[in-house]
Amino acid sequence: MMFAGLRGVPRAQLPREVIAGVTLAALAIPLNIGYAQIAGLPPVVGLYTAIVPMLVFALFASSRQLVASPDAPIAALIASLLGAMAAAGSTNYVQLAYAQALVCALVFLLFYVFKLGFLANFLSEPVLVGFIAGLAIEILTSQVEKILGIKTTSEHFFPELWEIVTKIPQAHWWNVAVGVGTMALILVLRRVAPALPGPLIALIAATVLVAAAGLDRHGVSVLGAVPSGLPVPHFPSGVSLGQWATLIPGAIAICAVTLADGLLTARRYAEQHNYTIDGNQELMAFGVSNIAAGLTGSMTIGSSASRTAAMDSVGSRSQIPSVVCALVVAVLLAFFSDLLAYLPNAALAGIVAVAVIRLIDVRKLTELWHLRRSEFWIATVCMLGVPVLGSLSAVVIAFLLSAVDMVRRASSPSTAVLEPGPAGRYVRARQPGPGPAVYRFEGPLFFANAAAFKEQVLGLTATDIVLDAEAISDVDTTGAEALRQVIGKLQAQHRTLVVARATRELRDLLTHYGLRLTHFDSNEAAVAAQQP
User: Fold this and answer.
1) Which CATH superfamily, name and number, covers 414-530?
2) What average pLDDT does range 279-290 have in this prediction?
């Protein structure tokens, strides 16, 4: 349903929403320019993204607060994906970026039609934390180069890092002063006046300093001319059929990261402020907003957790700020684009550096180290893999490591042999006696643990074995075959296996596998599993 994110705002609160929109524009202007540069695109592309695509998302989203915009992970992904296809900044590269937005739109809409938003859940938190931190490291490296005013020629991460270190004596120190000063001012304002748009204030201060002192004549680079006027609708040109196909894997990666981050952010704020969202509607909103992006000279649009948090902190409870932001940026480009020419690139790099350094979640990495080392190493592999191997390779490797870790843990579920204890309860048996043995298996019985299950049950010496199946949620064909073999071997030894506390679904599943079940008259509704 359209306009869901714009409804429910009392008339008395409209001024607050409009002011929040102006604040959002103050954040979006420098950040969108910076992210466009990270993506290898002209600055105006980032500004175009804050007009029609942002407006379209605001109209279609069910979330009242999620801010859609280009963000650091998307910008880095675009640069990584398109860099192998064309030279950054070239005409073909820019057209490929527009095409990338349209392919992303198609993926989002397919997710919407087939209700596949749940697939984002397969990006585990360690993978997501490591992946985004890796992108942040990659972005920070490029911004350090801009602040130092140096150029590197190395194509690989560690050689590039070493080249930056060795070229520090060649740094342009006025450039450094502007970039570091911008970062320092943002951090000070964040502490003493968090309600103010620190990035915009710092950018204005740096621009005034460069213009007043004539630092552009002393080697401090500035943004340069930005085309005036609003975006003109057009379809990407010069993109071959093969290139369209090549964009698909990258689009899937961009969409997965956007869904995992965006839907989580939207749900968090919806729960916090007691309203509901439709996750499927958000998929459609991302789809149609990226259609708008691809057709209006913009870059792929995703979600921004930082700008969403900023809007929440100033009291916004609707998508009205996104509408206001789009109008403010449109007016800027239509009438005041000449002012953008004097923005120092070092200041823009400083703004982006401050924004992305938060993406390296040291607290979460520390938490993973203390809670589960295997997941810490998965996050670390992903974090280092992004700058070293490339974003797609890193996320695939980290996903496979997550899957291996999950199967490894599932292959060794918690099991126990129980005996009668106080008050009629069963407790873990220290040394199973000669009487009936109660064997508890806690987890799905499937291919990875079927052999261990068979070995443990057959290793029991009791004549009568009761399988406590309360915690068995599923049995695959390999698990069913293991259960069939256990029953057969026990019967050959004149022993019995009784399945107790099985759910109705589990009983039906075992029957489906051809394991004939006979019910016993007992309070636990135990069933005996027999060979057909």
Assistant:
1) STAS domain (3.30.750.24)
2) 93
